[in-house]
Amino acid sequence: MSTEGGSDSQTDITDGTHTGSGAGVTLFNCSCHSFDQVEKALIAAIKCGISKARGLATEIDKKGSVLVYEGDPVECENVAMILEAAGLKVKISS
Which residue of 9, 40, 63, 70 has the smallest Cβ count within 10 Å? Predict the structure, then answer.
């Protein structure tokens, strides 16, 4: 289990399950972006290291989508905007 965004909510990154309170950002796979582009966008959006970004990109590639961030709804909007600015498809859930 991994807690993102400093909230008490938890996200199981391996299956994208949204648990607890707050909102979440799901990132979807597409064939139009390279792993490198997705990793760079994740690093900028969720402020993680390359190993976490690479792990998330791999999971997205395998599963089609993954909950990549969970926290305050305002922060989720900010994360989603950064990912969308990179041309990635996202969904915010609450």
Answer: 63
